[in-house]
User: Which sequence fits this backbone?
C-alpha cells in the first residue's frame, strides 16, 4: 500500500502553499538605481521594468544613482530597497538615517579609523563627555570665536609660548613668576599699586629717568657705606 495514500485530506497542502514567485506576487529582484524620488523613494530598473520602492530601515548605506541594489517585498505595491549590493562609485559612501542614531558597545570599545582624514561636523554642536580625554597630534590648529574654560587645575609644558592680543587680563589670588632672565618693555605708562613693594638685587639696582621723583609721606631713608650725590 502506498504510504502517501494514507494521508488525511486535512493534511493535503492547500492551494496557497503551492503558490510561489509570480503567483504569490512576492518580489525579490536585483536592479540598478535610476533615480531618487522625494519622500525617501527610489526607482530601480530590473529586467526591463521600473520598481518604485522605499529604502528599508536596515539599509543604512544610502543608495546612489547607478548602484546595484536588492529589492524585496510581498507584492509590487510594498517594495523595499533592502541592501546595496554593489556601488557605482565605491570611493564615496554615506551612512544615512532620518532620526537620531547611536553607535554603542555594551562591553567593548568603539574605534573609528580613517586612512586619510577624519572629520566631525555638527550643525548645532559637537559634545564629548568622558572621565578622561586624550589627544595626541603632531600639529594642532584651533579656531574658536569664544572660549570659556572651567576646571580645577591646568598644567602646560612647552618649549616656547607666544601670546598676541589686544587686551590681556589676569585676576588671581597669588602670582609666582620664576625665570632666569626677564625683559619687559612698555611704550606707555607702567603703573604698580601695592601696599608693600620690595625690590632686592644681589649685584646692582638701577633706577634712571629723565626726571626722577621719589616722595614719601613720613620717611625717606638711604643707608649705605658710601652715598654719592651730584
Assistant:
Amino acid at each position: 500500500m502506498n504510504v502517501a495514500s494514507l494521508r488525511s485530506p486535512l493534511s493535503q497542502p492547500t492551494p496557497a502553499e503551492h503558490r510561489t514567485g509570480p503567483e504569490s506576487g512576492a518580489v525579490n529582484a536585483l536592479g540598478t538605481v535610476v533615480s531618487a524620488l522625494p519622500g525617501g523613494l527610489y526607482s530601480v530598473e530590473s529586467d526591463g521594468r521600473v520598481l518604485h520602492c522605499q529604502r528599508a530601515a536596515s539599509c543604512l548605506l544610502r543608495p546612489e544613482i547607478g548602484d546595484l541594489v536588492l529589492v524585496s517585498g510581498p507584492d509590487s505595491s510594498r517594495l523595499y530597497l533592502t541592501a546595496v549590493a554593489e556601488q557605482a562609485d565605491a570611493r564615496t559612501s554615506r551612512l544615512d538615517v532620518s532620526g537620531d542614531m547611536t553607535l554603542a558597545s555594551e562591553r567593548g570599545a568603539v574605534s573609528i579609523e580613517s586612512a586619510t582624514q577624519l572629520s566631525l561636523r555638527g550643525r548645532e554642536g559637537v559634545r564629548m563627555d568622558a572621565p578622561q580625554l586624550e589627544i595626541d597630534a603632531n600639529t594642532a590648529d584651533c579656531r574658536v570665536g569664544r572660549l570659556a574654560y572651567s576646571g580645577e587645575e591646568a598644567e602646560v609644558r612647552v618649549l616656547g609660548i607666544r601670546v598676541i592680543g589686544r587686551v590681556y587680563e589676569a585676576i588671581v589670588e597669588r602670582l609666582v613668576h620664576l625665570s632666569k632672565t626677564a625683559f619687559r618693555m612698555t611704550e606707555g605708562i607702567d603703573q604698580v599699586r601695592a601696599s608693600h613693594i620690595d625690590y632686592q638685587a644681589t649685584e646692582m639696582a638701577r633706577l634712571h629717568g629723565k626726571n626722577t621723583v621719589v616722595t614719601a609721606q613720613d620717611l625717606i631713608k638711604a643707608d649705605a657705606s658710601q652715598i654719592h650725590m651730584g
